[in-house]
Amino acid sequence: MTEQDFVRRRRPDWTRLGQLLTAPPDPDFPRLYRRVCQDLSQAQAAGYSLPLVGELNQLVWEGHARLYRQPAFDGRALVRILTSDFPRAVRAKGWLLLTASLLFFGLGLLVYFYGLSYPDSLRTLLSAEMRDNLADMYNPQAEHFLQPRDTKGSADMFGFYIYNNISIGFQTFAGGAVAGLGSMVIMVFNAWQLGAAAAWIVHLGYQETFFPFVAGHGAFELTAIVLFGIAGLRLGWSFIAPGRLRRGDAFRLAGQEVLPLVAGSFVFLVIAAVLEAFWSSQHLPAEIKYGVAAGLWLFVLAFLSLGGRRGR
Amino acid sequence: MGPSRLDTLISADTPEGLRFDLHPAGLYARTKAYMIDTLIQAVGLVGIILIGTMATAGGMGTWLSLLLFFVLQWFYFTLFEALNRGQTPGKALANIQVIQSDGTPLTFGSALLRNLIRAIDGSWQLFPLGLPFLLFTRRFQRLGDFAAGSLVIYTPAGLRLAGRAAVQPRAGVPLAPPFNLDHDTSRAILSFSQRAATFSRERGEDLAKTLLGKLGLPVPNNPLEAVHGLAAWISGQRTKP
């Protein structure tokens, strides 16, 4: 068969496939697509002209993208990712969980107790501006009680927490791409700032306003930073120690593994922002605040340690 | 190390047992797309500030502006790439798109990964971290692309503009090669014939002489015309134009 004969005979199918590419799904499409795949093979094997091969190559490429497109949004899959893949990913590497917890909670507590024992050190650990802000925010007599200076109202605070906290969470994760270093730096920095801030507030004697405020949303917020940190460290570790895989492949697999962690931690921070803006700012007796906070911490710990243990 | 490569093409295998060629997009096209996207983000930011200021004056509060700002900063790339066939507006204008490295369309998860990691290797502040990866990896992947298993390629429109798509027959006297040329050789001859206009005449003659010599063909007085003739034959021309 000469090239001209081939084109004359097969052209109608190519035109039809070209039309189906942009049309709504058609039962004829897969058969037609595979037939054109065959045409491309034939054209390549027979050494037909490059423009023809190029045209078929293009047609097959577009058909391929249509046929093997990703499944549409699936609500159930998302629920499964958040309720079982997410807690599983948290537990998957115990030593990462331990490292990230030590870097954040461990260091934070260390700085906190050090600050309590040597309050003078807090003047170097925290900037003067930060110390003023804290004094302003948690002073029960202050005008901007429990709110940074430039905002007003719970809804505004919600927007601020979403923007600020989730940006920090994402940065903690993304920093892991450079051998985990960025994640560590961000976790260490935040642990140091939070530990020192808490110590400074206690030093000022405002603990009755501070701890009932942070205890509740802290369950989600602080945990989420550690979880973003785990995701970042997992990514970075795959680069340092790829095991039996090539670095590129190890990195890609780690990327797939940390996706549920990133998605779950994101949801945690959204929950934290809602709680912080609308619940933590409520002026209720400390017993109620602490009671609810205990419930939230228990829920987070139970969810992360028990979630997704039953089979798929 | 393997033989040095003639071009930057990579191929994807399909379940049908076919391979097709993909053209990874390099630094230039991607920087162009990034600059356009950054410009759009900047315009969006100004818009949010303006509307936000008016809304605040009307008693609305700043929470909406903050939310929009968050989405614009962190999800602009992800949402466009996930929902618009791997293309942000900038990528569409630069005629490039993101796909999975196996040739299938980009998944939402991959779009999310590659664009979160953008904070490290793609933002203008940390550009030096991403640059070496874009320049020196075989498929021009930055760190985010490695993690997501994604790839940025030229779209068909981009290939046509760059003259890399299916080659149009050249006007010339077709010259039948005395033996069957394989696919790669044919492509090399065609692209040389296309690019010959960008060399000086002498340089073109020189290269054509080398090319014919490598193929074991006799070198005539006008080697450039002979190569154009071969190219015309390869592109399907059989008679004089």
Explain how this protein is built.
The complex is a heterodimer of chains A (312) and B (241). Chain A contains twelve helices and no strands. Chain A is mainly alpha-helical. In chain A, α4 crosses α11 (247-279) and α5 (94-117) runs antiparallel to α10 (207-240). In chain A, 40% of the residues are buried. The mean pLDDT of chain A is 89. Chain B is mostly helical and 241 residues long. In chain B, the strands form two sheets. In chain B, strands 1-2 form a two-stranded antiparallel sheet. Chain B has helices at 27-57, 63-83, 89-93, 108-116, 118-121, 127-136, 143-148, 156-161, 183-195, 201-215, 223-234; strands at 10-13, 19-22, 96-100, 150-154. Chains A and B meet through α2, α3, α8 and α11 of A and α2, α4, α5, α7 and α9 of B.
The count of β-strands of chain A is: 0
Strand content of chain A: under 5%
Q: What is the straight-line distance between the termini of chain A?
A: 55 Å
Please tell me the overall pLDDT of chain B.
Answer: 83
**In sequence order, what are the helices and strands of chain B, one letter per element?**
EEHHHEHHHHEHHHH
